[in-house]
Amino acid sequence: MSQPPALDIENLRKEYNDVTALDGVSLTVPEGSFFGLLGPNGAGKTTFINILVGLVRKSGGTARVFGHDVEDDYRETRNAIGLAPQEFNVDRFFPIREVLEHKAGYHGVPASEAADRADEVLKQVGIYDKRDTRFDWLSGGMKRRFLLARALITDPDLLILDEPTAGVDVQLRRDLWELVTKLNDQGKTILLTTHYIEEAERLCDEVAILDSGQVRTVATPAELKDRGTDRIVVELRSPPTTLPDLLADDERVEAVDLDGHQLTVTARKGGLVAPQLVRELDREGIEIVDLEITRTSLEEIFVEMTSSDETGNAGDGDDAADSDDDTEDDDRSRHEQQVAPDGGQQ
Ligand SMILES: Nc1ncnc2c1ncn2[C@@H]1O[C@H](COP(=O)(O)OP(=O)(O)OP(=O)(O)O)[C@@H](O)[C@H]1O
């Protein structure tokens, strides 16, 4: 019998009064994967997570966690998930070790085991020596580590990290990356939301780009980068008076422009087009002085695929009645608007 995927989401919808936060999200996250959920502010990421953990009720569609329906099988679902949320929603009056023991107890771990388990996760995240400290007295970085410890206390199969490195310094970010990579290697499925594209690129096997409550695409970071257009800029020794017909039948090439000594080719997969370009220039007897390839960054692709609709209303103009039609496709992603330059950074 094949195992159900970690997440099996079909046409998930959420409306908060007149705001459509999720507009028919369908996603499958395989067991054991490190899956990224990327999107600008207001895209619906937190709503998505909150539905999984039972903090928000969906308006429509289905969501299953390892085969358990998030509403009908709430207990099983909740016990399978460890959530490190964005916000510091921690009991501030108890030493952190006790907070962990309470949490373990709440999930049915016997008291004798809970204490050992608490010590183990505190060691795992590197704050064991702070075990008798109250949450409020921890530094910002330690608070982030603690949230991770709390998510791990029940040894969940699915770990959800909602912007785990927001506002933390570079060293801690790297420490957290190392830790979550290890957890993933040990078999935990990880769902990560982040604004840091570098983080997604480094950690995730696959990412979904969510925008205005809709999935724009699901792909590996490498596949996404291949979709971007690269620029090959070639400096010529003595430019020809007319441009020969270069790369004429290469469908990856979007444009070839000559401006004085500088030849610019805009193409997908620039790294593969460049050698061909060099061969053709050589054949024409045109000497090259310099050549540079600028690859599109994942960040640019992300910006291209998402809009900056500050209202967060996912309607896109078709928010009429609750028709369950399922016609979205990737081409809707061709928004002209872009997120603000730093719109995704905090
Ligand atoms: N409780 C609520 N009541 C009304 N609207 C809400 C509520 N929670 C979220 N929204 C709206 O739903 C949309 C999606 O919000 P959500 O917090 O899920 O996005 P997000 O992708 O997590 O954003 P961020 O990256 O800023 O955390 C936004 O327009 C938001 O204003």
What is the general shape?
A: elongated
Judged by helices, strands and strand pairing, the structural class is alpha/beta
CATH topology of the largest domain: the name is Rossmann fold
- CATH structural class of the largest domain: Alpha Beta
Number of strand elements: 14
Low-confidence stretches: 309-346
Strand order of the largest sheet: 6-7-8-3-9-10
CATH architecture type of the largest domain: 3-Layer(aba) Sandwich
Question: Main β-sheet: number of strands, strand sense, barrel status?
Answer: 6 strands, mixed
The secondary-structure element order is EEEHEEHEHHHEHEHEEHEEEHEH
CATH superfamily of the largest domain: P-loop containing nucleotide triphosphate hydrolases
Q: CA-to-CA gap between the ends?
A: 43 Å
Radius of gyration: 24 Å
Strand composition percent? 25-35%
Overall mean pLDDT score?
84
Number of contiguous helices: 10
Any ligands, ions or cofactors bound here, and which?
adenosine-5'-triphosphate
Helical content class: 25-40%
